[in-house]
Specification:
By secondary structure, the protein is α+β, with helices and mostly antiparallel strands. The protein is built from seven helices and seven strands, in the order E-E-E-H-E-H-H-E-E-H-H-H-E-H. The strands form two sheets. Strands 1-2-3-7 form a four-stranded antiparallel beta sheet. A three-stranded antiparallel beta sheet has the order 4-6-5.
Length: 184
């Protein structure tokens, strides 16, 4: 495929010999990040970024309890924290892959996906949440190199055709169908 450009800072247009594709940049990037994070989680290779200055976060008493009840899971996901008294925690390290800064909101969303048995499904939901929060969004302007990198990484995915929760990452339009539609 050859990249043609970006449409409405939301979709990437690419063409091939038999048609063209509309790629949802957010859904595609979610898929890429989800598979990368899941692989790193499963192999234990999720790198941490030690924060120069710890971040103090406030949670409800039940949220704080759930965080510490699942401390090993959070550590495996790349988070390090300590009790800071009351309903506070001191966040000391975050997954190196995260580019977002609203860690409190992310942790709260992750807590919603933690089941008492931390099943594979709940872990995938947590990793999906991390991928979703970190993926490029609709409306983000991408330069040509960023688009090419997105294509390259998407082509390496086990399932490049849908985002983690099943939305298509791309739609193909055949030239034959396009020609028929325009000739009628």
């Amino acid at each position: 495929m050859t990249v043609v450009g970006q449409l409405h800072f939301t979709y990437i247009i690419a063409e091939s010999s038999d048609g063209f594709y509309l790629i949802d940049q957010h859904a595609a990037h979610e898929r890429i990040l989800f598979e990368k994070y899941l692989d790193e989680y499963n192999t234990g290779d999720l790198n941490k970024q030690i924060l120069l200055t710890p971040i103090i976060l406030e949670f409800s008493p039940s949220e704080k309890e759930k965080i510490f009840d699942n401390e090993l899971l959070f550590k495996k996901l790349g988070f390090d924290f300590e009790d800071f008294g009351g309903t506070s925690i001191s966040l000391r390290a975050v997954p190196n892959i995260l580019k977002i800064k609203n860690y409190k909101q992310l942790i709260e969303e992750m807590l919603l996906n933690i089941n008492t048995e931390t099943s594979t499904n709940s872990i995938e939901k947590i990793i999906y949440t991390m991928a979703c929060k970190n993926a490029v969004k609709a409306g983000d302007k991408l330069n040509h190199q960023e688009i090419l990198n997105l294509f390259k990484e998407l082509s390496k995915c086990k399932n490049p055709f849908t985002c983690p929760h099943g939305r298509p990452t791309m739609i193909k339009f055949d030239y034959i169908d396009l020609e028929k539609s325009l000739k009628e």
